[in-house]
Amino acid sequence: MKIQVILENATLQAVIDDTRIGRDFLSLLPLDLELSDYHGMEKVADLPRQLDTTDAPRSYTPKPGDITLYAPWGNMAIFYKSFGTTAGLVRLGAFDGSIEPLLKADSYKARFQRAE
């Protein structure tokens, strides 16, 4: 399923995986989140509730542009740098194209919604 991530000065396109957790994430949309930088490698935001991780892999190795859930904390993480395999990290989907607009500020508001 295609989604849009709307920032103050840019709209980014992403695709959410057709998985149980991906569909659960989509059920939250539209969603307004405050994204903030975490350790100079990802943007994170708290979700309004836990997502269904039934049948999700136990770990994942994120790549730049990946949209993930860190299940132990229940927060979403958008990676802009590669990182090692992490237990509890589950892929939700990935951006189509550049995520450069995500890197322009340490924190900002973003609206996640289904693409028309």
TrEMBL record:
Alphabetized Pfam families for the sequence: Cyclophil_like2
Domain of life, source organism: Bacteria
InterPro entries attached to this UniProt entry: Cyclophilin-like (IPR041183), Cyclophilin-like_dom_sf (IPR029000)
Cyclophilin-like domain segment(s): 7-104
Entry protein name: Cyclophilin-like fold protein
Taxonomic source organism: Ponticaulis profundi
